Amino acid sequence: MKIDIKHIAKLSRLKVDDSEIEKFEKDMENIVSMIENLSDLEDTGSLLDKDNSMVLREDVAQNNFKRDELMQNAPQTKAGCVVVPKVVE
């Protein structure tokens, strides 16, 4: 399948150098062929690999800073709060 990279770049308003067109054509052809081969895969009902499951770490909130230390970074403070310009009349 021949993919017109110049046309795709024009539609997406991207600037592509002529030296990169051949590389992008090969990449797009590989992507399209991969998508076409998806129908050849067995339908096991699960998208997760039982042999290679991902274990995510649990994020734990840590309070490593004191309020006074953080407030020193603010340009202006009053009564322990950051002062910001008024945006609503």
Strand and helix layout:
Blueprint: H1 5-11, H2 18-36, H3 67-71, E1 77-78, E2 81-82
Antiparallel strand pairs: 1-2
User: Biggest β-sheet: count, sense, barrel?
Assistant: 2 strands, antiparallel
The shape is flat
Strand content: under 5%
Compute the number of helices: 3
Q: How many beta-strand runs?
A: 2
Distance between the termini: 60 Å
Strand order of the largest sheet: 1-2
SSE order in H/E notation? HHHEE
Structural class: mainly alpha
Uncertain residue segments: none
Percentage of residues assigned to helices = 25-40%
Using only CA atoms, what is the Rg?
27 Å
What's the mean pLDDT score?
84
Description:
With 89 residues, the protein is mainly alpha-helical. It has a domain of 36 residues. Helix content is 35%, strand content 4%. It contains three helices and two strands, in the order αααββ. A hairpin with a 2-residue loop joins β1 and β2. The termini are far apart.
Quick structural summary:
This protein is mostly helical. It has a domain at 5-40. It is built from three helices and two strands.
Key features of this structure:
single chain; two-stranded antiparallel sheet; 89 residues; 4% strand; mainly alpha; 3 helices; 2 strands
